[in-house]
Design goal:
Number of helices: 15
Radius of gyration: 20 Å
Distance between the termini: 20 Å
Order of helices and strands: HEEEEHHHHHHEHHEEEHHEEEHEEHHH
Number of strands: 13
Helix content: 40-55%
Structural class: mainly alpha
Largest sheet: 3 strands, antiparallel
Amino acid sequence: MIDYALRGLRQCWISEKGRWSHIYHLDGRASPNESLPHSDVFYTLNVLLGMSRVRDIPDDIDLAQIFDRNVDELTRLPVAKYAFGMALWAAAELGFALPEPVKRKVRAILTDQARWKSFRAQDLGMLLIGVVAQTRAGENEWAVFADPLFRFLRHRFRSESGLFFDTPFGFRRRFASFATQIYLAMGCYEYGDFVRDGYAIHLADKCVRKLIALQGPQGEWPWFFDATTGRVLDFYEIYSVHQFGMGPALLEWAERHNVRGAREALANGFKWGLGQNQLGRSMLVPKLGLTVRSHVRTREYTTRIPRMCRALKNAYLGRETGLIDNLDVRLRLECRSYELGWILWSFGQRVDVRELTHDQAFSDISVERDTI
C-alpha cells in the first residue's frame, strides 16, 4: 500500500513548482494536474507529514528541500490557520526547523486569544496537535500554548452527544463534518497522551465510540453531523481519504486506548475503498497509484447548495438520514495529493494489518522510482 501511494504521488508532482498538486483529474484530460498555490502548499506539507512515517523514502525525494521551499510560502499565500498547525506538526515529525517568519506568524495566532473565536475545528485541532508535536520534539517554546488550546476546545467545542462542534460560537456551530471529529479527537489524544490528562482521552474515546455507532452499513464514514443531537445529517459525499487515511489515523489512537470496535471499524471502512461499497466499485486507480475522491450525489456534482439545504432541513426537523439509491450516486473523478499523504501517515509504520495493507489490489503494482 505504501509503494502504491508513493507511485501515485509521482503523478501529482508538479516539478516546476516543487510541490504536489491541488487536484489530479481522472477524467482523461491532457493536463490532469490542477494547481491552486495555497492548497498545493498545504497538501504538500500534509504529504511530508505522511513521509515522516515511511521507512524507505526514495533517494531522489529531498524532503528537506521540499519542506523549505513550501513552508516559506505560508506567510505569502492566503492559507488557513490550520496550515500553520500542519507546518508545526510536519516539522516536528521530520526534525526540521521552522523559518523564523513562520514562527512569528504562528506565535501571533496563538498569542491573540481574542481571535480564537474565529477558529474552525480544523484550525484548533491542527494547532493543538502541532504545538504538542513541537513540544514533544524538544521545542519547548510552544509548550505554553498547549493548555490554553485544550481548555478552549473543552469549553467551546465539546458536545454532550460525544461529537465535537465545528465552531466555538454561532449558527454554524452544530453543523460538523467528519473532519471536525478527526482533528479535534486526534488533538485530544495527542494532548492527553503527552500531559497524561485523562479527561482529554475520555473526550476522544467518547467521540470515537459515537462515530463507530454512526458508521454506515458497509463501513461508510458519514460526512455531515448534527453535533448537538449526535445524528447523521448527510452521508454524502463519502470520501476515500476518510476511509483509507483519516479514519484509520484516529482509530489507531483508539486501538491504543482499547476502544471497543475500533479495529473492526477501521477494517470495514478500508474495505469500502476496496470495493465493498454501494457501487461495488474499487476506489483505486491501479494504473496510476491514485484513489478516486468520493461517492457524490449525481445532482450535486457541481454544487453544494442542495446538500446544505438538506442538512438544515434534517437538523431542524429532527430527521434521520441514510444511503440513497445507487442510481443517484456517482464517482468524483479526481484525486488530491493529501489523500495519499494520509495513507502514508496512517499505515507507514503499521505491520499489524497486513490483510489490508497487502491486499491484492496493491501487491500487483510495481513502483517505478523515476526522478522527482
